[in-house]
Amino acid sequence: MLQLECPNCGVTAEETEFAQGGEAHLTRRGPEASEQEFHDYLFAKENPRGVHFERWRHVNGCGKWFHVARCTATLEIFGTYSAQTLEPPREIRDRISKKRPGWSWREFA
Amino acid sequence: MAKAVSALDGASHDGYVRVEEAGLQGMITLRGDLSLDAVRAAATTASGTEMPGTREIRAAEDRALAWMSPDELLLMLPYEEAPETVQQLQDALAGTHHLAVNVSDARAMFRLSGGPPVREVAAKLCPVDLAPGRFEPGEFRRTRLAQVAAAIWMPDAQSLQVICFRSVAGYVHDLLCDAAAPGGEVGYLV
User: Fold this and answer.
1) A93 pLDDT band (50/70/90 cuts)?
2) Per-residue pLDDT reduced to its tens digit, B84-109
3) In total, how many domains does chain B have?
4) What is the rounded average pLDDT of the residues A51-72?
């Protein structure tokens, strides 16, 4: 079971206090997008074995959203960070690079 | 107006700790930017306490102020005073983006008493470390109680209080009574 630290209220709690909210850092495609772009936004999700970025919500706690960087193979948590960001912070990426050299996820590495 | 009654009308149960529904309890949700002096002043004036820090509760006499989330406070006060206090908060915060709502009739509160074993009764139901030193009076923890959302805190080392939605009061009451049933003592968190 995952142990997540909510960056909004500072609680470290187990997975059952949270709800998973899908992939992180999606670009939301609007009316001006092509059909292919909109299709990819809706359906083409990452499903990696290894480093992954997700949105989570502290549903049975403070109720706020945040981001989680974790490894799907080992369930290791690399870190949690604010929902109000468009990309993983440098500090989290450096931490992942130390543990998983050469990792990449979408356009991030 | 019809006579107000709490969810379980003060039902109580004596197990190895005592479980009782707290009866009518005034509760006001106050949302806003908690870093603003205006919001903090309005909240602490209404509660008569200091401003609670993150995940804390501050109590004074019959009132208390709890930190619910980065933009939300819960003010507890006598049931009859809630409507008037909501009005006072709204007047004090006129022009400041906020939300003050009387949620007294939408919540239920339970009181567990009977000494340190109240910790383990709650620990059977919540995924929270309730060991002494890890959870102490003054802390306010929103969490999951079996299958529903709840908030717990310890007014003192001998008792513990639970807030849940009124719609699940019966469920929470049955859970707490079951967890407190004689013969179910674990004796670990004392």
Assistant:
1) very high
2) 999 999 999 999 999 999 999 999 99
3) 2
4) 97
What strand order describes the sheet that includes A65-71?
A19-23, A51-57, A65-71, A77-82
Helix or strand run (H / E) with residue A77: strand A77-82
DSSP output for B130-160: -STTTS-TTBEEEEEETTEEEEEEEEETTEE
Query: Do the chains contact at B142 and A13, CB–CB below 8 Å?
Result: no
Task: Tell me, yes or no, whether B115 and B137 share the same domain.
Answer: yes
Within a domain: residue B174?
A: yes
Residues B175, B172: Cα–Cα separation, whole Å: 5
Asked whether the beta carbons of residue A10 and residue B143 sit closer than 8 angstroms, the reply is: no
Q: Tell me, yes or no, whether B110 and B99 share the same domain.
A: no
- Model confidence at B2, in pLDDT bands (50, 70, 90)? confident
Chain A residue nearest residue B54, CA to CA? A9
ipTM of the complex: 0.89
Residues of A in contact with B69 (CB under 8 A): 8-9, 61-64
Structural domain span for residue B63? 26-105
Q: Which member of A14, A17, A64 has the closest CB to residue B69?
A: A64
Residues in A whose CB is inside 8 Å of some CB of B read: 8-11, 13-14, 16-17, 59-64
* For testing contact with chain A, the best of B55, B147, B153 (most A CBs within 10 A): B55
The predicted-structure confidence for B138-174, as pLDDT tens digits, reads as follows 999 999 999 999 999 999 999 999 999 999 999 999 9
| Nearest to B74, CA basis, from B53, B43, B38, B113 | B43
Q: Which B residues in the span 81-120 are in contact with A, Cβ-Cβ below 8 Å?
A: none
> Are B99 and B110 within one domain?
no
Return the CA Rg of chain A.
14
Same domain? For B34 and B101 the reply is yes
